[in-house]
Amino acid sequence: MAKPDQVLNIEPQNELRFRGPFNAPVTSYMKLTNPSDKKVLFKIKTTAPKKYCVRPNSGVLEPTTSIEIAISLQPFLFDPAEKNKHKFMVQTLFAPDGDVNLEQLWKEIGPEQLMDSKLKCVFEMPVEQNESQEEPTKASPKAIVASVPNNAVDPELQKAAEEVNINTCGRRSSFQKNVQQLREEESSLRQENLRLKEEILQLKLAAGARVTQPNRYAPPAQQQNIPVMYMAVAVILGFLGIVLGKFVL
Predict the structure, then answer these.
(1) Regions in the chain scoring below 70 on pLDDT
(2) 4, 84, 87, 195: least surrounded by Cβ within 10 Å?
(3) Cα–Cα dist 242/137, whole Å
(4) What DSSP letter does each residue of 88-100 carry, written as one string?
(5) What is d(CA 119, CA 28) in angstroms, rounded to the nearest whole number?
(6) How many CB atoms lie within 10 A of CB 109?
(7) In 3-state terms, what secondary structure has residue 33?
(8) Measured in Å, how far apart are the chain's first and last C-alpha atoms?
(9) Dist. CA 51–CA 43, nearest whole Å
(10) Could you tell me what percentage of the chain is helix, strand and coil, using 3-state DSSP and rounding each to the nearest 5?
(11) Is the pTM of this model over 0.70?
(12) How far apart are CA 111 and CA 187, in angstroms?
């Protein structure tokens, strides 16, 4: 018995392309369209379930509606020489009439009743990275000169190679000087920052001491006032004693 043809329109039809770099999740999209006048159930499977996150991975498509599926490839170490065998399969069937348990329906349905479409995964690296991987294979002027016998070296080519080496060394030396200067400036700024922090801390401690320090000079002033008052009272009493003595005598 021949399997029924796929009722959904799937975009893309044959390949899911994932563009690197692959040190972070990479997402590709699939669009499912139901051109029929019936409800269609769909389910998406893959040969590498641990390496992909599919949302949604199943559902119901109403007549003449579409849905976009996000397929995220998890980070991994990409090896261009390794053959990619990852594939996806879209399984569909017409929804039965009435209320049904979809989970149970997918378990009980036979493979010959399913409509399915297969897509293979293609991994692509950015053009910049491909060029950077090819650059080391390109020979430098120095390498070209070295590959030619000494008695056949073109003087102009030899001079160009020497100029390239001199310019490269000059730029490298200038770069190293700039790096050293930046490091010295960073060190001086750090020291200045520490010095300012110490000064701020000392100012805070001094201010706190002035606020919390008791008035040491108030009690002695009060104590000095007490003997003066006693002396005044004594003088007054003495004067009264003299006056009273005169009256008594």
Answers:
(1) 1, 128-177, 179-180, 183-184, 186-188, 190-191, 193-194, 197-198, 208-230, 243-249
(2) 195
(3) 127
(4) EEEEEEEPPSS--
(5) 12
(6) 15
(7) strand
(8) 157
(9) 18
(10) 50, 25, 30
(11) no
(12) 71
Spatial neighbors of 149 by CB under 8 A, at least 6 apart, are none
The C-alpha atoms of residue 53 and residue 61 are separated, in whole angstroms, by 20
Residue with tokens 């139901």: 34
- Cα 93 from Cα 108, distance rounded (Å): 13
Q: Which residue matches tokens 């920052």? A: 193
- Report whether 47 contacts 86 (CB < 8 A): yes
Provide the pLDDT for residue 178. Answer: 72
> Judging by beta carbons within 10 Å of its beta carbon (0-12, 13-18, 19+), is residue 92 exposed, middle or buried?
buried
Between CA 180 and CA 160 the distance in angstroms is 30
16: nearest Cα among 88, 74, 117: 88
Angle at 39 between CA 33 and CA 45, to 5 degrees: 60
DSSP H helical segments within 26-134, as ranges? Answer: 102-108, 127-134
Residues for the chain: how many in total? 249
Amino acid at the residue 196: L
Determine contact, residues 40/10, Cβ cutoff 8 Å.
no
